[in-house]
Design goal:
The protein has 227 residues and is an alpha/beta fold. 32% of the residues lie in helices and 16% in strands. Keywords: Hydrolase.
Length: 227
């Protein structure tokens, strides 16, 4: 049987190139990875919407005749979950790295101030602590310089979920700046309704900050290859 393709979705301010080292590591493990540069996050389209991003993800899923492993990072955990909702029969597993999926009717990523129709990277203060602990000053400067402002139509887009078959799609939570035990507590307490209703959730720990594709690509690829 042909292994499922692995579709990689970066979080806010990132384009598909952030996955380059992970893609190479997965290739060495015999896995085919497809990093997606989301509309509005690398193509210069500041008018892109959340619906545009979902369309791009579904195009990657539909381009493969088999089923896909969808990997969402940070805010894009919700995007991966939206794609599983739209194509539950075509998604083998959803992998959530450093994030949890929002529910139907909630804003996608309205986290920071919007300026001139986009949400710029807000600087490192909101990420003080475990999030950025494994990024040195040079890495932070490189990240900030390359960060792509997220279009307002993406950040303030409204999540729509309609197919309850999504709850039967297996989920793997990759836990970077928090522990699997903490994630399990959130789910058990009902703080993550979408995952509380999911029928099969597993957990993988990774010793990193919020961006393991940058700081622990080999370890992250090992986890993804095992899915």
């Amino acid at each position: 049987m042909t292994a499922e393709q692995i579709v990689l979705l970066g979080g806010l301010w990132l384009d598909g190139s952030v996955w380059a080292d992970v893609v190479n590591e997965l290739g060495e493990r015999g896995r085919r990875a497809v990093p997606v540069t989301l509309p509005g996050q690398g193509d210069g389209n500041n008018s892109a919407t959340l619906a545009d991003q979902l369309t791009a993800v579904l195009a990657a899923v539909d381009a493969d005749p088999g089923r896909s492993v969808l990997v969402g990072h940070s805010a894009a955990c919700t995007l991966a979950w939206m794609a599983a909702d739209a194509r539950p029969e075509r998604v083998a597993t959803v992998v959530l790295i450093g994030g949890i999926p929002s529910g139907d009717g909630q804003p996608y990523a309205d986290f920071f101030e919007i300026n001139d129709g986009v949400m710029p990277f807000p600087g490192w203060r909101p990420f003080d602590g475990a999030d950025a602990a494994d990024l040195d000053e040079q890495a932070r400067q490189v990240f900030a310089a390359a960060a792509i402002p997220v279009p307002e139509g993406v950040a303030r887009g409204v999540v729509r979920l309609t197919d309850e078959r999504r709850f039967d799609v297996p989920v793997v939570m990759v836990c970077p700046e928090y522990t699997p035990a903490e994630a399990q507590e959130w789910i058990a307490a009902g703080e993550v309704p979408e995952l509380t209703r999911a029928t099969h959730v597993e957990f993988a720990d990774i010793d990193s900050g919020h961006w393991p594709m940058m700081t622990r690509p080999a370890e992250l690829a090992r986890i993804l290859a095992s899915v």
